[in-house]
Amino acid sequence: MDVKIIFDEAFSGEADGAVWIIDTPSNRRWYAAGHGACPGSAIFQTDRYPIRDDAVIRMIWNAQEHNPDWTALTVIGAALTHRISDKVGGDGRLTEETAGFTLSRP
Rounded to an integer, what distance in angstroms lies between the CA atom of residue 103 and that of residue 47? Predict the structure, then answer.
């Protein structure tokens, strides 16, 4: 299963599979329109993480826990940093992309 973890605060694209999306008014409307209908989807908050990388790492771990059959986790709206790579790189192959990065299981 592919899982999208979206940090874009005004996401308007398409997303297949489970979707984890940051809680903003715009994203709540997007999610309520049926884009979060796949099991394993969620709206998340990052208020308790003062460092953005910590929020990204925690949401990756949470998505893995809630979607144990994941094959790829695509993070949109957050850059791949050395800190993120060090924490989650052992879980699969990391690939940088234009809008973020993907963690794929081998």
Answer: 24
